[in-house]
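--- STAGE predict ---
source: upstream dedup step, 1 unique chain passed
mode: sequence only
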Amino acid sequence: MSWASYGSVAAQSAGPVMVTNQLLLQSPAWQRARVLRVVSAQVRGFTDVVGRGDLLDRLRQDFTGVGPPSSRPVLRVLTGLGGVGKTSVARAYAQRWQQEYRLIWWVRAEDAAAAGQEFRGLLDALLPEEASRVADPVQAVHTLLADRVGRWLLVLDNVPGPDALAGLVPADGAGDVLVTSRASNWPDDRQAVSIPPPLPAATR
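--- STAGE serialize ---
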């Protein structure tokens, strides 16, 4: 499945929920929330990732050096064995460049149910009065992100593999999507960033 397929699955699966999403965009509350600064509790504080400075700089370059601003999100996938620090690197990236984003949200995406709850949590933060009336929080958030003012960052942590990513990546919007996964095979190698095991302390 190509990167474009991830977004197209999201668009095709919206179905009857799209009317609800369009009503959300017309809500007076959304006109305020579309510029609201939102930062997930998962990225607050400071994460020390020794020896990963070059990797964090590469991620920043990947997200900012792709050419003229696009209406499509930029996707990068941190891959590697369990315990090599993929989640720590993702958290450190979000913390280091927090001021460059108007919205940062962390999604624990190990399964569809967990991901749905995390997206609903973002809906609650943006539109607390309307969130309970949304049937599909994932598609609703995608619609809202496409209409956001300012750049946003979505972290999808612990995605099992490419198939599980389908439908989670927004099809539109001025944002960045950072994925962590143990899966090593991805449709587009240019989007995969391999995380090597950390060096022993004596060799740093």
